[in-house]
Write a structure and sequence with these properties.
Layout: E1 4-14, E2 17-28, E3 32-36, H1 43-51, E4 56-65, E5 68-69, H2 75-81, E6 83-86, E7 93-97, H3 98-110, H4 124-137, E8 148-149, H5 155-169, E9 173-177, H6 185-198, E10 204-208, E11 222-227, E12 230-235, H7 237-256
Helix pairs in contact: 3-5, 5-6
């Protein structure tokens, strides 16, 4: 049965300032939803609140997946439920290889059973096989796995590392928080190809962006505009094209009439 991520009247504050003021959104598996809007509209606040970042205080509302209110769960439990967040600014961690980090993440999110040696987690040989398969799918060089996590990575490499993590964790719903931020056109194409390789009926995407350009490569089914902590307009891909021409101010003026 197809799952949905249902956000109902979500209200979130940051540093005692209310940012989300009654956000409503439903995303089903197999759908790609683009969230657009000007700076300060609440796009990233929504992403971090859904993931369970402690800085983002939920003041009201509900977020439902598979009959469970995610807001009642810890961040790791939300990840186990099938929620994934790709960061806008991934952190570099010297001394930790990509492969070790990814295996730890997979064991934490997906593995609850013994690996046959009395320890919980996926066996190393099996993990390596899966990792190589995902890297082939995303057209990532095998040397990538031996590098320290995001250390010395270009902007495009950091975002590809996030997509590789997404591929391994296989979430039901993936939130991409401004994945296009800081990428040149070539890096954007490469990252978008990676995302498109993971699009399918078992996964819903929320693509947060300021600009229409990433939507030339990742084709959304629905586009939503956020302003002042709420979704103020929804439509199809043509809405993003319109915004590229008119900007957000024109839409906000229309809504204010």
């Amino acid at each position: 049965m197809t799952s949905s991520l249902l956000i109902k009247d979500l209200q979130v504050s940051v540093d005692n300032k209310l940012i989300l003021k009654g956000l409503n959104l439903e995303v089903k598996q197999g759908e790609i939803h683009a969230i657009m809007g000007p700076n300060g509209s609440g796009k990233s606040t929504m992403a971090y609140a859904l993931a369970g970042h402690p800085k983002y205080e939920v003041e009201g509302g509900e977020v439902w997946m598979d009959g469970i209110n995610l807001l009642e769960l810890a961040p790791d439990e939300r990840a186990k439920m099938g929620l994934f967040l790709a960061f806008q600014y991934p952190t570099a961690i010297p001394g930790i290889s990509m492969a070790n980090f990814l295996r730890t993440a997979v064991n934490a999110v997906k593995s609850d059973s013994s690996n046959g040696n009395g320890k919980k987690g996926i066996p190393i040989v099996q993990f390596r096989k899966i990792l190589n398969e995902k890297m082939d799918l995303l057209k990532i060089d095998k040397s990538f796995a031996r590098r320290y996590l995001n250390e010395g990575f270009s902007g495009g490499e950091k975002k590809r590392a996030e997509i590789l993590q997404l591929a391994l964790l296989e979430p039901k719903f993936a939130i991409l928080d401004e994945t296009d931020s800081g990428l040149d056109i070539d890096a954007l194409k490469v990252v978008s190809e990676g995302v498109n390789a993971l699009v399918g009926p078992d996964r819903g995407f929320i693509v947060i962006t300021h600009y229409q350009r990433i939507l030339n490569y990742i084709k959304p089914h629905f586009v939503h505009v956020m302003y002042d902590g709420q979704v103020v307009e929804s439509g199809g891909p043509e809405l993003a094209t319109r915004l590229e021409v008119t900007g957000y101010d024109e839409l906000v003026k229309e809504k204010a009439k």
